[in-house]
Design goal:
The chain is of the alpha/beta class. The chain folds into two domains: about 190 residues, D-Maltodextrin-Binding Protein, domain 2; about 120 residues, 3-Layer(aba) Sandwich (D-Maltodextrin-Binding Protein, domain 2), CATH 3.40.190.10. The protein is built from 13 helices and 13 strands. It has a five-stranded mixed beta sheet. The chain has a five-stranded mixed beta sheet with strand order 8-7-9-5-10. A three-stranded mixed beta sheet has the order 6-11-12. Helix 6 links the parallel strand 7 and strand 8.
Length: about 350
């Protein structure tokens, strides 16, 4: 969809880097659920499957999980899906307890979540699946907040913020109360936004309307003339008639999120990869899970754009499938990082 070049970029625009991190991790070999021939990958198995697949996690990733489960269900009608969205943190808690086959995440898994999984002997395969641009949103009636700088966003959202009205943000804005809507503390969106904007993960003012359900935030901003909120790009795409994008200026002028600016990294610092984490035991014991992941990776470039998110380059999905085939467990990331270079990523070992 977009020409990807290996170049120095921030974590927020890790299109090419997502490919690179898999190369170092693919170090063992096993066959897939789809009985593919050596050196190739089949999207689905011709054998009809049954059983069940449980997916939870990020509300940002939920549209992707839902879309793929619906499409796979058309081919494998006897598989029962349970797809929910309790937030990235909530999903990882259930995943670590062995309650899920797959959890979606809008940030990489953190060290404490890895330890929680280890306590229950849960191993996982990390599968980046798409890119998102966290979108800063106002009500369509807002005619003044066309662009906000990263510094202004920090001023609004930092702990103990003194911002109560729009005039507190910029002197030529109206002295109207600013009503804030944002991700709940169990959300990977919350973790990434606070790291990228405030500079420290989970560092935020608390006097705002918080929810792990992005649809709740959409309703809040669309119903309040002087509201400001943030959530995944797909939820803006689905509600363009009720919302207005704010351009974000990271020092090079205001940039709006779009499939192009998210993919090429110019929408900084709020572009980020989205993930699925697959329970290794489910890959070992449940053919339907293996087949679903293979289907997802083979169809990603077709289906991901229909959900409002941005596809990874073809090579990323190919290497991701190799990672799944070889059951490479662990993460190649270290939390919700920003400012990491490809050189650094290529030197990394997978953390189990």
């Amino acid at each position: 969809m977009v020409d990807q070049r290996l170049r120095k970029i921030s974590f927020a625009s890790l299109v090419a880097a997502t490919v690179a991190i898999f190369v170092a991790g693919c170090n063992s070999g096993e066959s897939t659920a789809t009985d593919k021939p050596e050196g190739g990958t089949n999207a689905t198995t011709t054998e009809k499957l049954s059983g069940s697949i449980s997916i939870d996690g990020s509300s940002t990733v939920f549209p992707i999980s839902e879309a793929f489960s619906e499409e796979f269900g058309k081919e494998q009608g006897d598989i029962k899906f349970a797809v929910a969205s309790s937030g990235t943190g909530g999903g990882f808690k259930k995943f670590a307890a062995g309650e899920l086959d797959i959890t979606g995440a809008s940030r990489p898994i953190e060290a404490s979540e890895i330890e929680a999984a280890k306590k229950n002997n849960i191993e996982f395969v990390e599968v980046p699946i798409a890119f998102d641009g966290l979108s800063v949103i106002v009500n369509p009636k807002n005619s003044f907040a066309e662009t906000l700088t990263v510094a202004e966003l920090k001023k609004i959202w930092e702990p103990n913020s003194k911002v109560k009205t729009w005039k507190d943000v910029r002197s030529d804005f109206p002295a109207e109360p600013i009503k804030l809507y944002g991700a709940g503390t169990d959300s990977g969106t919350f973790d990434y936004f606070t790291k990228a904007i405030v500079g420290k993960e989970k560092s935020s003012r608390t006097d705002y309307q918080a929810s792990e359900d992005d649809n709740v935030l959409v309703q809040g901003v669309s119903g309040d003339e002087f509201a400001l909120g943030y959530f995944g790009y797909a939820y803006y795409e689905q509600n363009q008639d009720k919302l207005k994008l704010v351009k974000v200026d990271a020092g090079k002028g205001g940039i709006s999120p779009s499939p192009e600016t998210i993919a090429d990294g110019t929408y900084a610092p709020l572009s980020r990869p989205l993930f699925l984490y697959v329970n290794k035991k489910s890959l070992d014991d449940k053919p339907e899970v293996k087949a679903f992941v293979a289907f997802l990776l083979s169809k990603a470039k077709e289906i991901v754009p229909t959900t409002g998110y941005v596809q990874l380059p073809d090579e990323a999905y190919t290497i991701a499938q190799e990672r799944v085939d070889k059951k490479v467990v662990g993460t190649s990331f270290q939390g919700a990082e920003t400012g990491i270079t490809i050189t650094d990523l290529l030197k990394r070992e997978t953390v189990k």
